[in-house]
Amino acid sequence: MSVDEKDIEYRKKVVQEYKPDVERLIRYLPWLEEKSGSVVSETYTGSGIGEHSIAFPVYDSTLLSFVKEVQRTNLLDRNYRYIYSRNRIVTNRDELRAISNSDITRMDVLKGILSKYVIGGMTKGRMWSEAVQNRIFLNVVKKMKENLEFWDRPMVN
Fold first, then answer.
1. What is the pLDDT of residues 46-71, one digit of tens each?
2. Cα(5)–Cα(9) distance, rounded to whole angstroms?
């Protein structure tokens, strides 16, 4: 097998691995596009909760559905910190650059960035909202879709 044939086989394998999960997420693209740059959570302060307890975030139901959908996929990587250190991703700007520079051979980077926000949001409530506001979720899903469509047929929202 030549180098080109191995490369094509690898890309086909990546498409098969990621496509079912990405297809589940692309239905959220219109919502993510619409909500980019806006706040999708608010702090619950009803019933005098500030006096007796800690205020907690209340999320948009579509955001919660998106997070639950990601959790049901194979797109979560608990070792996402390794992706960040290996690729020297530190700031939000680094994340956005890494997303735009990721092709089909670097889907692990996209998976790592998605994982940071989904997993991190389970303990730090603001992370999910930040990922929507800063276009992280939108850009990751769009880039995954774009990479897969380049090597396979188009996917429908």
1. 555 455 555 556 778 899 999 999 99
2. 6
Give Cα 128 to chain centroid, integer Å: 10
Q: What share of the chain is helix, strand, coil (3-state, %, to 5)?
A: 70, 5, 25
pTM confidence score: 0.87
Burial of 149 (0-12, 13-18, 19+ CB in 10 A): middle
Structure tokens given for 32: 């993510």
CA distance 117 to 81: 11
Residue 91 one-letter amino acid:
T
Q: Look up residue 135 and give its two tokens.
A: 């276009």
CB 146 within 8 A of CB 107: no
CB 130 within 8 A of CB 136: yes
